[in-house]
Amino acid sequence: MTTVFSEKDFVELQVRAMAQPDVRVDCARPVWIFGAGGFDRGLAGIMQSSGIEVAGFVETKPVVGQVIGLPVVDWATLAKKNPHAQLALGIFNRNTPYDQLVEISLNNGFEKPLMPWDTYTQFNADLGWRYWLSPRNALASNLERIGKVASQLADDESREILFRLCAFRLGLDLPFSSFRSYENQYFNDLSLPRLYGRPISYLDCGAYNGDTYTDLLKQTGINLRQAFLMEPDPANYAGLVSHVSSRHPEVICLPLAAADRHSILTFSSGQGEGGAIRAGGDIQIAAVAIDEMLPQGRVDLVKLDVEGAEAQVLKGATRLIERSRPVLTLSLYHNPQDLWELPELLLRICPDYKFHIRQHYFNSFDCVLYAVPTQR
């Protein structure tokens, strides 16, 4: 990736995006959904509630014959049953690139399926928050703003990643679904050089079971003096304590969520790393601002992966950032507006930092913003 992108390119992308017609489900035809996971089932239920006939699900290797009362078939069976089926791609995760999934559909004799950004544009009011998905016009209308963010990034690779990521989410760059940056996520040549040669303190907001902390310990040249690991999900917190506390005396595990102020919030506990602060969540958790939790002292490295609450955490850590000038690594894919709002926020909090973007998994999941101080 070596192309240089400017603000003008984002404006031209906006024109292309606005000119695209919306691709919608043909309500007069039954729909087969490619995949049978959680997003797929939710999409099927919403279509049915909208009066659209969902005929079933298609998978390459079905493990069950029926889901939510609908058949799950393989491609050969679907080709016999309905060779001209209307397909909607319901798989929404970081595991398999969309260009490969589209190729599966084409290789089995079907047309390209409706993509998640197509169905989300049509059904977003019912689908609700789905990570980075947004109606096409919502992203397209902010491309000039994103172009201004791109102009503040420190390297051409970051600008190209940001441009192609936007084009991908608009349905204009399907090959980007397979792209991954070569750097290790969070700890790499962007984030680590400022930390060599001295004992450091580490803050992990969204520590899960300690896997990222363990990865940090493996980095050559890092001398870890202290670590604060925050994890609000009770099951994950138990795993975190079991994993690190007995073997790492420098670690302080905290069963808290990071936020912009102290509060009691509802939390949707996930299966693994997917728990998030949500209205109507199934449990209550305590949240605290980092500036209140750590009013003094310094932190040298901060990782934020808090399922969409990154902006609130930054607002609650402004004094720590100004005082400590830590290296910051934060997730950039949990909300569609994170692409521009999180860099804009950091440009106000720490304008003399250098900003980089890297893409660490498929389908624009696990995109990370690296903010590195230029001087101490």
Q: What does this 3D model show about the protein?
A:
By secondary structure, this protein is α/β, with parallel strands linked by helices. It has helices at residues 7-19, 38-49, 75-81, 98-107, 116-127, 136-140, 143-151, 156-169, 211-217, 234-245, 290-293, 310-315, 318-324, 338-349, and strands at 31-34, 54-58, 66-67, 70-73, 86-89, 199-205, 223-230, 251-254, 257-259, 263-268, 276-277, 283-289, 301-304, 327-331, 353-359, 367-373. It folds into three domains: 7-19 and 139-162, no CATH class; 31-114, NAD(P)-binding Rossmann-like Domain (Rossmann fold), CATH 3.40.50.720; 180-331, Vaccinia Virus protein VP39 (Rossmann fold). The protein is built from 14 helices and 16 strands. The strands form three sheets. It has a seven-stranded mixed β-sheet with strand order 8-7-6-13-14-16-15, with helices on both faces. It has a five-stranded mixed β-sheet with strand order 3-4-2-1-5. The mean pLDDT is 92.
- In total, the number of strands is 16
What amount of the residues lies in strands? 15-25%
Q: Report the top-level CATH class of the largest domain.
A: Alpha Beta
How far is the N terminus from the C terminus? 31 Å
Q: Treating each run of at least 4 consecutive H or I residues as one helix, how many helices?
A: 14
Q: Choose one word for the global shape.
A: globular
CATH topology of the largest domain: Rossmann fold
Average pLDDT number: 92
Radius of gyration: 22 Å
SS-derived structural category: alpha/beta
Biggest sheet: strand arrangement:
8-7-6-13-14-16-15
